[in-house]
Amino acid sequence: MEDVRESEKLSRKEKEHLFRRKEILEAALKLFATKGYDGASMQEIAAASEFSIGTLYNFFSTKEELYLTLIEEKILESREWVEQRVKLEKDPLRKIYAAIEATLTFMENNREFFLLFLFIQAMPNSVVHKGIHERILNSYEKHVDFFRELMEECEKEKLLRDFKPEELAMSLIGITHAWIYRWLSGPGDKDWLQQHERIMDLFLNGARVAAGKPKK
Question: Of 64-78, 90-104, 130-144, where does mean pLDDT reach its minimum?
Fold first, then answer.
């Protein structure tokens, strides 16, 4: 509702600017997801968005700027999506459950965006590569911080074992991301993502049938 109100305040020219920018980012997303950073050219992005190359450069001066803008805005959108759903819960464990479910749902609706990450490791070790990784890492750290705060809430209530909140956050993120990457590498069956309960069970209860130390 707030976004709608803000949109109503914009002039026709401002709305047109945002619409063109959105069209460019959507076209770039599809090309980067299928061809990778190096494989997609600004000329191809301009053609796919149905704008001239000059218009494209009016919005983004370089391909690196376009790529980073796309990723950072999507990461922010993902974090806001998760946070909004977590706010609906009061119980700390229910908040974690909501965070997992929201993360998987966002990924399911943004498959092309997550495919971008499959290409990052294959990018050349250059200044552009370094710059992209540093900016993405900075955004990712905010994602980790959010999950760490959820674990700190559980720690206060003594709901989890005596691990550091950051360790718990990284463990949960790792399990969830493994699920996501497995889904991305397959045909994209949506049923694969209806697994938040199993992820939560694995995170909270582990894989062993009974508690205790393994036999030597």
Answer: 130-144
What digits encode the pLDDT tens for the residues 52-80?
999 999 999 999 899 889 988 888 898 89
CA 173 to chain centre: 11
Q: Say if domain 1-61 classifies as CATH 1.10.10.60.
A: yes
Where in the chain do CATH 1.10.357.10 domains reside?
63-209
Closest by alpha carbon to 45, among 61, 60, 27? 27
The Cα-based distances of 215 to 199, 209, 210 in angstroms read 26, 14, 12
What is the distance of C-alpha 138 from the center of its chain? 13
Q: Compute φ and ψ for 200, nearest 5 degrees.
A: -65, -40
What global pTM score does this model have? 0.78
Number of H helices, E strands in the chain: 10, 0
Confidence of residue 127 (pLDDT cuts 50, 70, 90): very low
Is 173 in contact with 147 (CB distance < 8 Å)? Answer: yes
Q: What kind of fold does domain 63-209 have according to CATH?
A: Tetracycline Repressor; domain 2 (1.10.357)
C-beta neighbour count of 172 within 10 angstroms: 22
Tokens of 183: 């889904």
How many Å apart are CA 66 and CA 190, to the nearest integer? 30
Residues of the chain with CATH 1.10.10.60: 1-61
